[in-house]
Amino acid sequence: MSGALSAIGSFWTYLTYIFDPFCGPVGIFSLFGDGTLVACGNAGWGDEIAFGVKITISVALATLPVGLVIGFLIALAAQSQEKSLRLAAGIYTTIFRGLPELLTLFIVYYGIQMLLQSIGGYIGYDGPIEINAFVAGMIALSVVFSSYASEVLLSAFRAIPKGQYEAGDALGLPRSRTMVLIIIPQLVRIALPGMTNLWMILLKDTSYVSIIGLSDILRQTGIAARVSKEAFFFYGIACLLYLILALISSFGLGFIDRWSRRSEARR
Fold first, then answer.
1. CB under 8 Å, gap of 24 or more: what pairs does 243-252 form?
2. What separation in angstroms does the CA of 21 have from each of 14, 31, 193, 240?
3. For residues 111 and 102, is the Cβ–Cβ distance under 8 A?
4. Tens-digit pLDDT profile for residues 143-196
5. What is the DSSP letter of 206?
6. pTM score, whole prediction
7. In contact, 217 and 49? CB cutoff 8 Å
């Protein structure tokens, strides 16, 4: 069994190497960076920068679903009949839209550690407790993203006629089924342009995680710039990589937008 798992692991490693867009056989740094500062291997910083790109993408992709779920729940609370829920949603969005993203990151990263340390001391544990930088970055960015996403989703909710809910009631559907089958498909189409902008902002905001030691694009290129004394070159590489990610996102989100509006095109 262990031999089979080892073989699968080796095969997966080989596949990731073959299709690596940076340091694979046909990767950008392998083809155009050989003998330069961005060459892969010990000759340059290609491997480190490629790892930073993967961290940046991972943080953004991990943040997106968490932020969307929280934002959706906050939007539901903001239009609830219960006054306390509306008040809580308003306080949440006001706080986290008002605080700078970097400050929110510090509060989450250091605050959670202090909280866990206090709980540990209460139960008799005196050892150091450290929170994972990736998890802290994801939580902080999710909180900020959800505060903005909730406003976008709330506007989309308000753009859907109340007759859509009444139509679901007339068909005998429970409110949960009405939400899933009738409301959410329209919500996605209406909120998508605003969510596209928030995704672009999220991609840029991932650079904040470099402050707490996570090896994203900005941190890796920053280290390379300090060691090589080629700050303009490596920060230029960072700019180019962020622009490429934004361009790929634009194409992908444009395709999703056209797909969501396919029924309009038929009419």
1. 245/53, 245/56, 245/57, 245/203, 246/200, 246/203, 249/199, 249/200, 249/203
2. 13, 10, 29, 15
3. no
4. 999 999 999 999 998 888 887 777 777 777 777 788 877 888 888 888 988 999
5. G
6. 0.86
7. yes
